[in-house]
Amino acid sequence: MRALRLVSPGKIEIQDVPIPEIAPDEVLVRVGGAGLCHSDLHVLHAPEFPVLTLGHETSGWVASLGADVTGFAEGDPVLVYLVWACGRCRPCVEGRDNVCVNQGGRLGMPPCPGLGPDGGMAEFIKVKARYLEPLGALDVASAAPLADAGLTPMHAINGARHRLTPGATAVVVGVGGLGHMGLQILAATTGVRIIAVDSSEQKLDLAREHGAHETLLSDGGTAEAILAGTSGYGADAVFDFVGIQPTVDLATKVIAPDGALRFVGLGGGSFPYAADSLTTPLPWGVDVRRSYGGTRADQRQVLDLARLGAISVETKTYSLDDGVQAFTDLEAGQVPGRAVIVP
Ligand SMILES: [Zn+2]
Ligand SMILES: [Zn+2]
Asked: Which residues form the Enoyl reductase (ER) domain (predicted)?
């Protein structure tokens, strides 16, 4: 089969590889869609990374089942849940499988297809049956990004619900794949006023289509504009889907007292924390979360919202042969919503 493989730092290409053989508890999935994520770019440019098939947002149809698999039939449309946790440890049984003890531990993360095990940018992917979610009537190709671009904002938002009350203000920084889904989830599940921030006018247009009440082009005056629009008090929640230094600075400058500061994007920005009143940039009561992926329950909620028609992914599709071009377009910031490879 053909697969889009990371072959050396900075280099991806289409290769012919064997169709994976499945174990008794695994399913072979014929890929229907594989989304591209900024984390794929981080992997692509990492100084050292094993050779692997990329793609951690995967949907498709059951092609064959291992001997022990029940509950699925050939042809069933499925989504691949990306957190391959143990399912047995204390966090897992508490519903915090994204921070599994046994598969991830204190500073790691559970295995994720396309970032360790082979991912979905190929004609087939093998997956343990217990990591599959039935898609039902959802369109298979455009559902693929729900595995990360849907899941990850849902987790960040679910962890900030106590601040997302009617009358509150939420700021979404970065209207890319995750950001445009985060806006829709906020609009569909809360009564907050939503301000979207991006450096691209085109992406702010997308933000207005997907639930932003106000949009701000990020420039030197963004923080002042948000503060002015909240009587100087700040935003009750800030979701930073970018994480570069200017967006981290913006987030810490505009968060309100008791606010929920949620960092999702891995852009390498930082801020100093000081345990005093004189030098800390943060108001009292702010809670900061380094939000990773999402739980199985978050994934279900995303799928249910999509089935209701309350959220949907804006996709730009590419054939597998055009996969390298898709990466080039993503890197150039020229993909509105999510790029999806359809093999
Ligand atoms: Zn991702
Ligand atoms: Zn676990």
From this structure: 10-341
